[in-house]
Amino acid sequence: MGEALFRHAIELAKEHGCGLVQLTTDKKRPDAHRFYDRLGFVASHEGMKLSLT
C-alpha cells in the first residue's frame, strides 16, 4: 500500500511539472531506507539537528 501511494504521488508530481521529490528519514530506520531505495530515491544530503529538551 505504501509503495502504491508513493508511486502515485511521484506520478502526480511529474504530471504537474515537478523536477524533484525530496524526503527526510531517520538514520536509525534501515527498513525505511530499503523502501526508499526500492522506489529509486538516492541518499544525497546529511542533515543536522539540535535537541533543546
TrEMBL record:
Domain N-acetyltransferase: 1-53
Keyword Transferase: yes
InterPro entries in the record: Acyl_CoA_acyltransferase, GNAT_dom
Swiss-Prot/TrEMBL keywords: Transferase
Origin superkingdom: Bacteria
Record-level Gene Ontology MF annotations: acyltransferase activity, transferring groups other than amino-acyl groups
Keyword flag Ligase: no
Protein name: GNAT family N-acetyltransferase
Originating organism: Brevibacillus invocatus
